[in-house]
Amino acid sequence: MSSKLRVLYLEDNTDDFLLVQRELQKAGWALEMRQVDNEHDFTRHVREGNWDIVLADFNLPGYGGMAALEFVRRTGYEVPFILISGTIGEDAAVDCIRAGANDYVLKENLRRLNHAVTRELGEATARRERRKSEEERSKLETKLRQAQKMEAMGRLAGGIAHDFNNILTAILGHAEMAAFHLADSPAKGNIEQVLKASARARDLVQQILAFSRQRPAEKKVILLDSVVHEATKLLRATIPAAIEISVHIPPAGAPVLVDPSQIHQMLINLGTNAAHAMKDRGGRLEIGLVKCTVGADLVRQFAQLHAGPHMCLTISDTGSGMDAGTLERLFEPFFTTKGPGEGTGLGLAVVHGIVQSHDGAISVESHPGTGTVFRTYFPIVASGPAQAPQPAAPPIPRGKGELVLFIDDESSVLALAEAMLKNLGYTTLGCSHPEQGLAVFEERQDDIALVITDLSMPGMSGLELAKKLLQIRPSARIILTSGYTGDLDIDQCSRLGFHGLLTKPFPLRTLGETNSKALL
User: Fold this and answer.
1) Which of 20, 279, 397, 412 pairs with 127 at a CA distance of 20 to 30 A?
2) Which of 503, 501, 481, 482 is nearest to 492 (CA)?
3) CA nearest 362: which of 300, 305, 293?
4) Judgement on whether residues 228 and 190 belong to the same structural domain of the protein
5) Which tens digits make up the pLDDT trace of 272-292?
6) Contact 279, 285 (CB under 8 A)
């Protein structure tokens, strides 16, 4: 309510209007009061005004209080409505209340008016508070349901990652080894396509893990320039040629603390989403990176942001744009406007999760037919140098005939691992059951230089197996491998006695480097 009580009064008798006005002023109200005496003026003022209360005479020539009441309630204008008139009888008064009037005051008893106004304004305030409380409760319930979805998604992601990554380990590993041996064979191109398709499948699993917060971020202090350029190269190779890509990056950037692979994934998701919006007619995809200062307005809009210097990464397109309904659900998991087989509905949900996990924010501007602009904000690191570019990869470390015991209940993974280890210069023993692996280790513990065991196996987990192996030989070198490690990271594995962690699917280089470190 404003500082003055804003009253709209439907009354054709000016003397009665002044009596009511005087009664309210006498009660201490500071008034802004308007008299109207016909339907046209009344409906216009209801639509245009912001009234605290509406008063209406019951009987007017051509347009009475009941018609005015019906209009106010029909339009959804939530404001106290009090009828004022002479004696009309008890039945008519009851009908008024049933029709939605808040009270009925007789002109011969205007002393009741202040009490009625005070009470109804109080009730209106209480209704607003209740509605606000209900809206907040509804939002909390929505957040709870979303949290439950995320929890369920996390469990699903773990199962998908474990089983699917076991399959991908065999596909990627065999394809990589085949590509290595085929050299200049015409079939090498086919194998490379298998590798690319498998890598996309692996990335989809990583998207699900990132979305469900099951994949820990590996944050580094970097300049975003290099990530933007890498992602742009990939986008140029994958989106239609009819779409022009332009990149605008200032010469002097500022370091941010991010997981480069997640930012890369975010850019790819936003870029491919923009390309989809332009696929029918082509267009322009613009990627920009600028320093900016987040002020109070943005902080009010995004609670997770803190005022101060940020890097703003902008992705804009000239595509079909989105309406308000789509914008409202844009980051909702599994929501997609794409046709069957064209999208999972996870891409933008993943983007939102990535930005949130980096203490950033993402805003969207879009209208049908005018394209879309995404702006993501990442806090600039106050101190600390950006990481230098990585030098060219050294040769893959190789073994010198050391005996490696590999234990995995997946026969395809076991066969591949033995082939990869032999390719790297190791001799191997493979076991498909943890009890069998334990027995082999007891028998040949002096010969075995390294044990690699899967985490999830029937009968005994990799953690339990490692504990028993270390009881037999405390100096045993053990590497843990899994398609889904959950909350386990390399530091936790080290505290449990492991000398390395291999996340499936792992390429030949990762296997060689992990083995080499474990055997130092």
Assistant:
1) 20
2) 501
3) 305
4) no
5) 888 888 877 889 999 999 999
6) no
Domain carrying residue 289: 224-379
- Residue 156: C-alpha distances to residues 59, 166, 170, 205, 351 (Å): 67, 16, 22, 11, 19
Rg (CA), the chain: 35
Residues 78-101: pLDDT tens digits? 899 999 887 677 777 788 888 888
Alpha-carbon distance of 436 to 407, in angstroms, equals 9
425 contact partners, CB below 8 Å, separation of at least 6: 398, 399, 400, 401
84 CB contacts (<8 Å, ≥6 apart)? Answer: 11, 16, 20, 55, 56, 57, 58, 65, 104, 105, 106, 107, 110, 113
Cβ(387)–Cβ(500) below 8 Å? no
Same-domain check for residues 202 and 268: no
Is the CB of residue 334 less than 8 Å from the CB of residue 344? yes
Q: In what order do the strands lie in the sheet with 361-366?
A: 243-248, 283-294, 308-317, 372-379, 361-366
pLDDT at 404: 96
- 230-241 tens-digit pLDDT: 888 888 878 888
Distances, alpha carbon 215 to alpha carbons 158, 257, 497, in Å: 10, 17, 22
For tokens 């308000």, the residue is 324
> Helix 508-518 crosses helix 411-423 at what angle (to 10 degrees)?
70
Does 242 lie in the same domain as 300?
Answer: yes
Report the alpha-carbon distance of residue 64 to residue 44 in Å, rounded.
16
Question: Over 385-446, what HEC string results?
Answer: CCCCCCCCCCCCCCCCCCEEEEECCCHHHHHHHHHHHHHCCCEEEEECCHHHHHHHHHHHCC
